[in-house]
Amino acid sequence: MPVLEADIAVLRGRIIEGFSMPFPVDTFYETVFMPGFSDTHMHPQVVDGGLEPGRAWRNSYEWLNTRQLHVDEAKVRGDIGLSSRLAELAMYRALLEGTTLVAFTGRLEANLKAKLRAAVSPRLVLLPTVMRKEGWSTPTDLRKTIERYKNYVQDSLLRLGVFVHSLAYSSDKMLVDSIRLTKQLRGPIGIHLSEGVSEKQQFSARALPHARGVRIVAVHCLNDSFNDLGLRCSSCPATNALLYRRLRGSLDGVTSFGSDWPHLVGTTGGLIPAIIKAYSPDLGGVLYRATVGGYEDYGMSWRGDIVGYDGSLEDVLRGKIMPSMVSVAGNIVVSEGEIVGLGLTHRDVVRETVETIRYAVDMYGDGTMPRIPSREEIVRTIVESSLNPILLPRKA
Ligand SMILES: [Zn+2]
Which of 78, 87, 119, 296 is deepest in the core (most CB within 10 A)? Predict the structure, then answer.
């Protein structure tokens, strides 16, 4: 029987030496990850973070209300061709960075369309956003959309749930309706929580009593720990650092990582060197959360999700090499560092992403390209932010 062999494997986040498993063809990689990286929070339609050099916001609400965007977000989201192309590029970038599971918020039609037309895709959690704001869906709108596309969401590699934007942008009725819809879908629910401001009490009062038995993924959870309430927590170190110049002081209560803005900062697989620098004493804890942690957040299988590198684990963790091979559910989707069937490299996808953002600026913007931080800036900002930690009580 043919086998895949590796010198080093990161298996469910644990590092082991000498690895072998049945595989369709005899193959050897210096390093393999099984499963690959998980990215549990992404806005695939975001092309502009409103980033300004040196500017830091106190919390997400201040950012939402005072940021200066160069591109009209609602118009990007409303352009189904553009917004689905952006989601497709986010999927390719994820795979090329070894990220085998992604969770998309944003517009359901666009993200589904991307999944249908993409040559290959990671495991996908679709959490369409509901928000009390002009141009966004309510749970009722979402219910209609899901009904319309219900045949397309029956896919073993896909899970459908709901993303409630935030407590401040939801009425009590929206919260309850969203939780009810999530229960009917038997899916997970995600929500931005405690992103620079404590929201634990409010969440406990307004949402928790309705959500018994529902899988809840809190995103950011910078100022509170929610694990005692049974919530999972997707931490987004890159955007926390870029927006607030602060990080959580420890990973207690964090169950996975999200990139938030894949087009501007990359995905978990690409961010791993920076995350390790920020939380360096706990390498095993980072690797667990960055890989299988996200699968556990959303109750997804990781069978057949493998990433192979022609280089040492040290080089992977320093960001010096990219995956040679990626398989999702046993199907090879990246081979020799290229998307199978398209021949796209990481460099190609990043270039196409920048061109697509330029198109968005031309169509729906003020003519100025949004700031896209360099890799060095992202690493430096994450490391600097880790020196300004938010410390939470160990037992919250
Ligand atoms: Zn977000």
Answer: 87
Q: Cα separation of 347 and 333, whole Å?
A: 17
Q: How far is the CA of 288 from the centre of ligand 1 (A)?
A: 22
Residue 38 CA to ligand 1 centre (angstroms): 15
- Biggest CA–CA distance in the chain, Å, is 60
Q: How far is the CA of 68 from the centre of ligand 1 (A)?
A: 17
Q: How far is the CA of 235 from the centre of ligand 1 (A)?
A: 10
Q: Which of 59, 162, 61, 72 is nearest to 361 (CA)?
A: 72
Is residue 96 within 8 A of residue 345, CB to CB? The reply is yes
On the CB side of 107, CA atoms within 13 Å amount to 24
Tell how strand 325-328 and strand 331-335 pair up.
antiparallel
Task: Kindly report, residue by residue over 306-341, the tens digit of the pLDDT.
Answer: 999 999 999 999 999 999 999 999 999 999 999 999
- Measured in Å, residue 343 CA sits from the centre of ligand 1 at 31
Residue in the block written with tokens 């190609």: 348
Per-residue pLDDT tens for 214-267?
999 999 999 999 999 999 999 999 999 999 999 999 999 999 999 999 999 999
Q: How far is the CA of 264 from the centre of ligand 1 (A)?
A: 13
Average pLDDT over residues 287-302: 97
The Å distance, Cα 385 to ligand 1 centre, comes to: 18
* Non-local CB neighbours of 304 within 8 Å, separated by 6+ positions: 327, 328, 329, 330, 331
Tokens of 14: 């644990």
Whether pTM exceeds 0.70: yes
Topology given in CATH for the domain delimited by 36-390: TIM Barrel (3.20.20)
Question: What residue segments make up the domains of the chain, in order of their start?
Answer: 36-390
Does residue 395 surpass a pLDDT of 70? no
Residue 217 CA, ligand 1 centroid: distance in Å: 12
The alpha carbon of 59 and the centre of ligand 1 are apart by a number of angstroms equal to 12
Expressed in angstroms and rounded, the spacing between residue 41 Cα and the centre of ligand 1 is 6
Distance (Å) from CA 46 to ligand 1 centroid: 10
Cα 64 to averaged position of ligand 1 atoms, centre (Å): 11
Beta carbons of 223 and 194 less than 8 angstroms apart: yes
Count of C-beta atoms within a 10 Å radius of residue 81:
9
Residue 396 has pLDDT above 70, yes or no: no
